[in-house]
Design a protein that fits this description.
By secondary structure, this protein is an all-alpha fold. It has 11 helices and no strands.
Length: 182
């Protein structure tokens, strides 16, 4: 019987048995207890507006389909609202597992262009969404300084944030992403 969603067969070389183990070791220790009930998908706000199916992502992770999971744009559709965890009958840390897999994806060179762009803005300005002219005007109309007392107006704070990003490896990771994606 063929799968109505995909005619692709899972071959043994597609399975990485260590993938699930790495997710478990990183903190999603109950992922193997998933019974594929679909509760996570049914309560997912992102799934209501997109083709994102949490249950499918979890199934692929448990099966060890590392390359398929890490390369999937669906991995980035989770809004990290934790509704799936709150409703999961097995108390699986689904959102944590997705965050773990996102980190793995970036480590292996997979990142959506939008996330890469926001990360590059974070490196250069200290904010993923810098204050633009429209925001400056709104702030001024509200009687606020045009720039908030953050890295936008405090250069030392920006240098400190950039040091943190360099020490944690975030800067190198994102710059490597920019080079690979260019």
């Amino acid at each position: 019987m063929t799968n109505p969603i995909s005619s692709d067969k899972i071959e043994s070389e597609d399975i990485d048995p260590q993938f699930t183990e790495r997710i478990v070791e990183a903190g999603a220790d109950r992922i193997r207890t998933c019974i594929q009930c679909g509760t996570c998908s049914s309560v997912c706000p992102s799934g209501r507006r997109t083709a994102f199916r949490t249950r499918e992502l979890m199934r692929k992770a448990v099966l060890g389909l590392k390359d398929e999971v890490l390369a999937s744009p669906d991995l980035w559709l989770c809004a990290t609202c934790y509704t799936c965890l709150e409703r999961c009958p097995r108390e699986i840390k689904v959102t944590d597992a997705i965050i773990i897999m996102r980190n793995m994806a970036v480590d292996e060179g997979f990142m959506l262009p939008q996330h890469r762009k926001a990360s590059q803005k974070l490196i250069s300005t200290g904010h993923a969404v810098p204050i633009d002219d429209a925001n400056r005007k709104v702030r001024k109309d509200l009687g606020l300084d045009e720039l908030p007392p953050t890295t936008h107006s405090k250069k030392k704070a920006l240098r400190d944030v950039q040091k943190i990003m360099k020490k944690t490896g975030f800067k190198k990771l994102i710059e490597g992403q920019a080079e690979e994606g260019a």
